[in-house]
Amino acid sequence: MTTRRACARPTICHSLGCALFVAVLGLSPRVAAGPAPEMPAARMVEVTPPACEAVSFPTVAFLDSLRVELAGRGLACCTLVDAGGEARTTAALRVSLELVPCAADGERVEAAVHDLSDGRVVAREITLSDVAQPARSRALALAVAELMRTLGHGARDEAPPPVATAAEASRPAPPPPPSSRQSGLALEVAGEARLLPARDTILWGGRVRVAVPWRALHVAIDLGGGYASAGAELGNVLLRSVSAGVGVGPRLSTRTAVVDVGVRAEAGWAWIHGETGLLDVRTGSGSDLTASAGVRASVALPARWMLRPCLALEGGFMLHGVKGEVNGQPVVGMTGYYLLAALGLGVVP
Predict the structure, then answer these.
(1) Are 241 and 209 in contact, with CB atoms under 8 Å apart?
(2) What are the tens digits of pLDDT across the range 114-144?
(3) Which residue of 57, 165, 253, 287 shows the fewest CB atoms closer than 10 Å?
(4) Runs of H (alpha helix) within the chain
(5) Which of 193, 195, 222, 219 is nearest to 209 (CA)?
């Protein structure tokens, strides 16, 4: 009996159920969403144009340029106010402009930015004499935007730093750049042996070389000397020489070695004299200019060391030389082609 009474009026029950269902649907999104977060209000920028009445200041062009410069920087630009007017809000920035001097051809503007929230002021005199007339409004707007950045306002929102992916994080770090000594000025001290097959002579000596890099090339100068002797039945013939050379060519620098390749020219002086222990043998002596030209290749490694061994090979021809004779037969000299090998130590300051 009780159940039948509750359902005696099905129309009323159905209406109440629908109303309750609609009310629940209307309230549930609001409860789930919650209050919307408040966005920070943009700071108002107020502009006080020049009070000078002698000229017509391009106010509209300046405001358009300043609005472009402050776009996306959290500043609401721009509102014109009088010089003595009160700020609409204490959170505003006020820009004041004055022509110096107040003349029709004034090319200097005294600009100041006031932060009304804390009373800070920054000012600057802007010279527009070197700016074309159509571009002066934009140049002035750039200067005013820089003053706002000085106060800590108007900086563009920076993008968050990129997040490395798992593949990038596991990738090994790139090797450090090669040391600057790879292509720096180098001082080399080396011993050398010069073979002259035409005179069956080996000239032993030493040389100091300075190599200076220039872009992908190198220029080198050197100074050295040599000594050779030849024995015969009547005595010995001695040869001594000093020379200076210059070379130029490409340079290849890697983390492992520094390779110089190029041409080299040399000029010097040589002395030849004979020695004998026999009383009836007459000895003589003489000297003359020597000159040569050749191709040289050198390698120094490891390139990252301040002290590094170096090896050089050279081949060329004697353009002008000397020779020593015994009974009209040459036994020592510097003529014909030559082969040179040098081994030493390089120092990179």
Answers:
(1) no
(2) 888 888 888 888 888 788 888 888 888 888 8
(3) 165
(4) 2-6, 10-33, 59-69, 136-150, 166-170
(5) 222
Torsion of CA 287, 291, 292, 296, to 10 degrees: 100
Whole-number Cα distances in Å, 300 to 93, 224, 295, 339 = 65, 20, 17, 20
Instruction: Give the contacts of 145 (CB within 8 A, at least 6 positions apart).
Output: 66, 69, 70, 154
Between the ranges 41-45, 105-109, 193-197, where is the mean pLDDT highest?
Answer: 193-197
pLDDT digits (tens, 9 = 90+) for 18-60: 444 444 344 444 433 444 444 445 678 888 888 876 666 788 8
The answer to whether 331 touches 230, Cβ cutoff 8 Å, is yes
pTM of structure: 0.48
- Which is it for strands 43-48 and 75-80: parallel, antiparallel or unpaired? parallel
Sign of the CA dihedral running 257, 263, 269, 275: positive
Q: Where are the beta strands (DSSP E) in 181-306?
A: 186-196, 201-214, 217-232, 235-253, 258-275, 285-300
CA–CA dist 89, 86 (Å, integer): 9
CA dihedral in degrees (334, 339, 345, 349; nearest 10)?
Answer: 80
237: phi then psi, degrees, rounded to nearest 5: -120, 125
Residues written for the chain = 349
Domains of the chain in start order, with CATH, are: 43-150 (3.40.50), 182-276+283-347 (2.40.160.20)
**Residues 173, 176, 181, CA angle at the centre, nearest 5°?**
170
Are 271 and 237 a contacting pair, CB within 8 Å?
Answer: no
Q: Are the CB atoms for 325 and 303 separated by under 8 Å?
A: no
State how far Cα 299 lies from the chain centre: 27
